[in-house]
Amino acid sequence: MLLFILKRLAQSLLVMAVVSAVSFSLFNFVGDPVNNMVGQDATREQRAEIREKLGLNDPILTQYVRFMGNAVRGDFGLSYRIRRPVDQLIMERLPATLELVFVSAVIALVVGIGLGVYTGIRRNTFLSRAILSISLIGVSLPTFIIGISLIYLFAVTLRWLPSSGRGGTVDLGWWTTSLLTLDGWRSIILPAITLSLFQLTLILRLVRAEMLEVMRTDYIKFARARGLADRSIHFVHALRNTLVPVITIIGLNIGGLIAFSVITETVFQWPGTGLMFIQAVDFVDVPIMAAYLCFVALLFVLINLIVDILYFVVDPRIRLGG
Amino acid sequence: MTDLLTITDLDVEFPTRRGTVLAARKVSLSVAPGEVLGLVGESGAGKSTIGNAIINLLERPGRVAGGQILFEGQDLRALDEDQMRKVRGARIGMIFQDPQTSLNPLLTIGAQLVETIQKATDFKGNAATDHAVGLLEAVGISEARARLKSYPHQFSGGMRQRVVIALALAGDPDLVIADEPTTALDVSIQAQILDLLKKLCRERDLGVIIVTHDIGVIANIADRVAVMYRGEVVETGAVAQVLGAPRHDYTKSLIAAVPRADTRLHRFTSVDYIEGGAAQASRIDIKSHWLGQGRKADPDRAAMIEINGLDLSFVLQGAILRKNRKMVHAVDNVSLTVQRGETLGLVGESGSGKSTVARLIAGLFTPDAGTIRVAGQDVTTRPDAPEAKRARRMVQMIFQDPYSSLNARMSVRDIVAEPIRFYRTTGSESETRKIVGDLLDHVGLGAQAAERYPHEFSGGQRQRISIARALASRPEILICDEPTSALDVSVQATILNLLKDLQEELGLTMLFITHDLPVIRQMADRIAVMRHGAICEVADTDHLFADPQHAYSKHLLGLMPRMEMLTPVQTPDPSNVPA
Questions:
Q1: A315/B319 CB distance under 8 A
Q2: Considering only the top CATH level, what class is B337-404+458-560?
Q3: A235 to chain B: which residues are within 8 Å by CB?
Q4: Which candidate among A115, A318, B178, B290 keeps its CA 20 to 30 Å from the CA of A261?
Q5: Cis omega (within 30 of 0) on the bond before B61?
Q6: A48 and A151 assigned to the same domain
Q7: A226: nearest CA in chain B?
Q8: Which CATH number fits the domain B5-98+174-257, given the four candidates 3.40.1080.10, 3.40.50.300, 3.40.50.720, 3.40.605.10?
Q9: Is B153 close to A317, i.e. CB distance below 8 A?
Q10: Selection from A204, A282, A277, A213 nearest residue A246 by Cα
Q11: pLDDT tens per residue across span A148-195
Q12: Distance in angstroms (rounded) separating the CA atoms of residues A138 and A134
């Protein structure tokens, strides 16, 4: 087990090194940073001075090592546009994104697994077929269209829910949450549903396929032959066995939720890191882009590490050896 | 003695798009308490269907169409699903074939036992746990209380089947239906499990229905036997009578096809009831035929395979430090010689390393130490040298599972022609096609089989395709790795006959690997017995069976199913003996 985790950690470090190299190269390939920092009327000397101060005249490798050293400490420099430390900016925006991702992950998991089990067991009922047909919409429609449709229906036509923003937030000192106010909950519903829909259908279909597979196995047949109740067979014996492959996909997809949140946050003007990233792209604010890249990669790597460790918890065959 | 279960005129049908298939037709059976009824037949005979029909667990869309199932005076067909669930486990227990797959891998055996006990009996809480311990002890699992916390994968195959039996008995049933309970197990384990079933049957006055394709199992355990053929019971009676003096023609042919350990026959008696057995294979004159051309081995050379001090270990569990790694010594200092034209049998239980030796010879594994010479050419020191590759071409393998060893997306023609095209051993495509047709004809499938795909063929026919494919490389050495283990006895007999004929006509050298002693008795000239990766004994076949030297050989021979009650061996019909 230790060996396994060490191997995974080594792989994760490699991934992070590659991503950081890509983020670093942004500084050199996406325009001249000095142009972004000084005004039109800056003199040649002023430019050279800033260049020297930022260490842009050092060899590229030295710059990269310096970038890495700072990045490890969470220091990504100043935003070109807002002139504030990037790590602070991210930390301010992070709670909004994480809460959105969390709520939509919960929706996707609960609804996806629930409907997946149902359609897997009662596969020939009208309701199952209806669920499967509707779920096609979730896979085939792009996120922004779903988001805009939901806004049109619930915010514009019915006027039940707000169309944008986070609503009322409560500042806990280190975390600003919108989950403690009714207004905040009303605001998160639409973006969370929009964000979760794609993952939900994916999980639904995966759980259903796995469930169909597991229900055909000998141990389920043997469980039935022992007279066990359907509820126990479905939820104790079958569901757990479907989870091993499902966990893999869920792990990858929670990372995907963060990536997709860029679009959802834009549509709903949700003040999270995704929206910040899009604005940074507009203004070629390289430090934010680089930091966001590293941050998303880190999340992906961490989630996948957790997923690998989850295998040990779920499957005794891996935990205890053959 | 009143009967526990009486089935009268049971019909089971499977409606399909092309009309209804009758899986069981007018089946009548009865089992008394304390009695073992054997239900024997080949695949597709409908024997498992009967077992599933009794407890109403037929695969959809199958359904019972007619007849009566009386269990302890109660008509099981009249019960609804809820009532049926109370019968399952509590009054009728089931045991399935494969202990690897019949236990839930993610739950401890304790959890599975206790759940079943609480559902089917009045034991609750700690009493249920105690009862589970008692059951595990009853099926012969030591340190039962501690083992409740173990997961299925921590048990060996035989132990797992004991757990399955304990689970089947958890509800204290009066009838146990065992569907091929020992087919997936080694011979020595098989004997133990059968003894256990018999003991439990006597002690608890259980009625047992044992469904199997294996006449040996029936001979060992059953009191009465019912023979099934294509959904019908063709013969029922006491075991000694049915096996010793069968009345129905099918029973006669089935018993004739069982490989015997007592004497060696030149050929298996061929029987009309067997699927695919009727096609007559064409004969080949090796001197003029394509198969005889391009032979590479020196015809005067006696030793075709020479193995010297072969060693191979696998890593079981990785670790950072070399000394912490768990290794298994799969092949341990094995030395063997196979002479031209002889069949060497390699016998052992699962995990003995016999298949690994075959794969080493075929070049699928690289040995850690030792040398392999094929027709005098060293193929291990420089495995990629052109001479080594040429030597390896003389060796072809036939694998155990005819379902997974053929590419389902390729037509039979492409499968058989692949080695011919790869080695460019023919001048033109039309010649290739002609040879493929010829080969298929020769293995008894007929040239028209080339247009079809593997899924259209039965297990025995697929094994014939595998043989044709092996022949297409013009081999001089054939390695058969359990070629008939997945097949029915009657089909096995025809395949073994085919292999014998081929060897005779083509002068092939064979390495025949199996766990089945009666089969090897019929096939091999000499036998090597393997255990834990090492060779225990090499002896002439007749010698080994008459007077085994090594303790393990004696043990293995002692485990063979007793066949005395079978009809005495008839002198083969002279018309069947090849000239």
A1: no
A2: alpha beta
A3: none
A4: A115
A5: yes
A6: no
A7: B89
A8: 3.40.50.300
A9: yes
A10: A204
A11: 888 888 888 888 888 777 877 777 777 778 777 888 888 888 889 888
A12: 7
